[in-house]
Amino acid sequence: MIAEITQQNSASTLLNDYISKICAQGFSGDTDASYATRIVTATDNSIYQEIPQAVIYPKNSKDVQVAMQVASLDPFLSLSFGPRGGGTGTNGQSLTPGIVIDLSRYMREILEINEKEGWVRVQTGVIKDQLNDFLRPYGFFFAPDLSTSNRATIGGMINTDASGQGSLVYGKTSDHVLELKTILVDGTELNTNKLELEKAELLAEQTNRVGEVYKTVLTSCRENRELVLKKFPRLNRFLTGYDLENVFDNEMKTFDLSRVITGSEGSLGIVTEAKLNVTRIQPFKTLINIKYDSFESALRNSPFLVAANATSVETVDSKVLNLAKQDIIWHSVSDLISDIPGVDVQGLNMVEFNGETPGEIEGKVSSLCSQLDQLIANQEAGVVGYQLTNDKAEILKIYAMRKKAVGLLGNTKGKQKPLAFAEDTAVPPENLADFILEFRALLDSKGLHYGMFGHVDAGVLHVRPALDMCDPEQEKLLREISDQVVALTAKYRGLMWGEHGKGYRSEYGPEFFGDKLFTELRKIKSAFDKNNRLNPGKICTPLESNDSLVSVDGQKRAWFDRAINIEVKESFENAMNCNGNGLCFNYDEASPMCPSYKVTKDRRHSPKGRASLIREWFRLQEEQGVDLLSSEKTLIEKENDTTWWERFRNNRKKQQGIYDFSHEVKESMDECLACKACTTACPIKVDVPSFRARFLNLYYSKYNRPLKDHLVANVEQTTPLMAKLPRLTNFVVNFAPVKSALKNIVGYVDTPTLSVPTLASRTKNDFKYDEAKLAALSKEQMSDIIFIVQDPFTSFYEAELVEAFMQLITKLGKKPVLLPFVPNGKAQHVKGFLKEFKSTAKSANEFLSRIASYGRPLVGLDASLVLCYRDEYLKILNKDKLAFEVHLAHEWLSNQDWNSVGKLSNTNGHSVVKLLSHCTETSAMPESKTVWKNIFKQLGVELHTPATGCCGMAGTYGHETDHQENSRSLYEMSWQTHTTNMENETVLATGFSCRCQVKRYENKKPMHPIEYIAKNI
């Protein structure tokens, strides 16, 4: 043990010295050796987990060069490195026990575009969708189309030679690489591009690192050309790791070293910049969704579809389709993949045609449709129906569903989850159906469930068997299946890694390459990295090295998870099930998905990061003998066993810097805006706000809470009291000394102003809740009653909105009844006061259940609080269903007869009326925008509903002093472009916090759509 501790301390000292040295030498990026960051970076979308020593985040090529130059000095020669991009690989390519060089945080600059020559130069942290958004106005796109395109970096695509949909036409990433800038392990800058063979030979004669590299690769590939051509099948998805074949053109007149680097998984150097060719966008598209009676029928029919000269043919099986139907994504595609009465659709092929003109594709489409009609009429080939669309937006929705298939499979119920480990085999397309039937027979023989999807046009199918990796016996199956799939793939003249690279499957390299060619790979590795310091163990090891390759038996995430109590895992299933697919890294600023990650670009502040941290926290608590569930139960049902003195002493230890991993988890949770986008947008439904609240509840049983948390948690108790003297309250909170104290002592800014006059003074007695009067109403009179459920924000800070809603209800021929204010408890939940929240929820449940017995609608105005009844109440009260249901205003209004109220007259005279939606509402109720558009359409107004992310306020988050910079950045990122023209446009917003945020930065508050309708009807 003493020797082990000494070794750890020595390694830590060396690491700290290295980080200090690179910073002294001009490294301008970030460095992070915290345990939280290392844990978050220890996983990707694979089954493996490898904790690195540290993570560095360079800002440019010079930073990478400095990092490598310093690493080549004594005493740092023992350090190893692994480059990382999006971190969504399925085979652990970017996992390393050394230092991670993460290029995704800063290196996102698009450096140059040449429209005339059709190329673009980028830093390799640029995200695929980011690049295409940049290229679209120029009429170009970067062709390789990945399912992870909204978070995959160009560097990651280069290092795995990614391809994706449409590869028969567009090829792989390597087919689009024109030049690369690569930093070698000693800091040498290597610039590569296609050269005349004579020029390459001249470079090979140089007596330096570049010359050594060129000489080795030239010699190896030239002397073994015949063997390479004989050994490997001519597959569209041909992926060797180091591409020994395509360094030469067919005539061997040119040589391109970039082809060896592309697909090398960071084991040869760190690619920092790339010059890429780009493809002209073909403006006309048609997508045909063909439905089948079985998945086998879909597979066997694919060659027929490829023969129709389609751009791409994609497929999904019934398991993926059924999972999609349970996901938020289905509402956007259900009309495009409609059910067939009496037919159980078991497979789907998506066939796309592209063209410069409609005429280019009309003939192909009509010919295929005629043949499909004939197949359906004759009940042949298993075709049971098809749907066609030419609408680009609809086509994108279909592909969004297909792209989400990766994550959707991870949402399979039960402990056994479909896993990626032998799932991107590539065989000749004509062999695919037979290959898959044998593959299925193999899995069926072991009693396993599985899902399938992929690129049938290229012979690549993603097959994901469902295993519980916490079960040691099922872990053994992973090895058995992997070995058997290797043999099966060889039988059908295919490759084990057709798309997602080798990673931990590198051990199968010798089997596919043979001893001779694998030795050539090792020679190339030696020329680039003779001491095996770059992503060691991946693809191959240097020729003179005794180091081992990584193995499919490598350390898995489940090894860590097994240490967690089974009851804890089941109770926190929404955190444990995260499979690392990384959809929460979505770069799209108009997406509501995880605003905290978008603004910080720190993966600790993402749903995946937080799930990783809380899992490790569970493990460490278990290691320390803490019974989490028992402690939680005590905290919710009884008093905290920890005395204030013990909490004070713990706080002192925290201030003194005594380490507790809980603080790192807490720091991550503090940045969460509790917007709940992860609960729906994430295919696994990782629910951060739920496990965050539970963590905070436990954390603050040990440490003292800040004053601001108590103020927020009691807002529903204090606000009604303050509203009794609103003018005095407003004067006090806006009094300069008080504002200063709130900011500097409490930590809150921009406190909203209470409504004057108050809601109580605006409301007629006839509209107030009176149980005796209600009991006296006839059945006919009761049929017009609409109960309004109050919330603290609109009732006390926007009384005019509640008043407008009551007026609108009256104009619609109904009678509004304002229920007495009953606390909801949302703020208590957000801050982790779960005992208090449970008490509040019980009271509200009793009251609203009694009101529900009248059989009339209950309607609320604030999305976050209304949705709290539907989600958090069920969990804290341990119920499957409540006796009451509170509707949001648009849900109730959508069923009303608007003919009786006439049309809207826009008093502002603005031609544009724009609605910006609350992010929680957008995530949980994606149809809400459409509902509002339909309501306004009936009232004679076209409502614009642009896509927006989070406004940055999110309840109290935007009021907290510590979050001011991030709050403003989020507003500028997504909302500001839609609010800067409020003098000429009518801007509406459904969220109270959103309206406050706009008022704060634009000095003008948008109306709620209800206010607008009530005012102008």
Automatic annotation (TrEMBL):
Domain 4Fe-4S ferredoxin-type: residue ranges: 663-694
The EC number(s) this enzyme carries: 1.1.99.39
Cofactor (UniProt): FAD
One GO BP: lactate catabolic process
Domain FAD-binding PCMH-type, residue spans: 48-281
Enzyme class at the top of the EC tree: oxidoreductase
Matches recorded under Pfam families: FAD-oxidase_C, FAD_binding_4, Fer4_8
Record field: transmembrane: none
PANTHER family the UniProt entry points to: D-2-HYDROXYGLUTARATE DEHYDROGENASE, D-LACTATE DEHYDROGENASE
Protein name: D-2-hydroxyglutarate dehydrogenase
Organism encoding this protein: Pseudoalteromonas rubra
